[in-house]
Write a structure and sequence with these properties.
This protein has helices at 2-10, 41-68, 71-99, 111-154. It is 71% helix and 0% strand.
Length: 155
């Protein structure tokens, strides 16, 4: 529940916990971003990290569905994932003006905040890397399944 509250408070309308298997959410369950509110750089980075954590869960579930050959569920899952990527794009647009300011010139509330955000940015890079690795695995497995199906049809 805390994750969901974080997303609602920060302008993102869905928390990672709601996406776990069995949660029963679909693409029509209000996954669009809430109205834009002015957020600090720190808040935006925290939102980015939470959203990437959610996208990692989605990519892991996607990989499971591909491995099990559950294409009907996969298609629904991809619709949900696309909405989250759309939210990610909006978040990146909100971050764009902040990214123009070099870290050394940015005004921080404290040295701890600066370290915390730098660590969060590093985690974001790692999360994105894992998501892309999962995507590549999905593509590879899907291509293998396609080849197997083609061979089975030839027999």
């Amino acid at each position: 529940m805390q994750r969901r509250q974080f997303f609602l408070r920060s302008g993102l309308a869905l928390g990672a916990a709601a996406l776990l298997p069995g949660a029963g959410l679909t693409a029509s369950d209000g996954l669009s971003p809430a109205p834009a509110i002015e957020m600090t750089f720190s808040e935006l980075i925290q939102n980015k990290e939470e959203l990437l954590k959610t996208l990692l869960l989605i990519s892991q579930r996607q990989l499971e569905l591909v491995e099990k050959g559950k294409m009907d569920m996969l298609i629904q899952h991809l619709g949900l994932r696309q909405q989250l990527w759309n939210t990610f794009e909006l978040l990146e647009q909100q971050l764009a003006p902040h990214k123009k300011i070099p870290s050394k010139n940015r005004v921080w509330q404290s040295a701890e905040e600066r370290l915390m955000i730098e660590a969060a940015l590093n985690r974001c890079e790692e999360l994105l890397k894992k998501i892309l690795e999962n995507d590549q695995l999905c593509l590879t497995k899907t291509a293998e399944q396609k080849e197997e199906a083609e061979k089975a049809l030839e027999k």
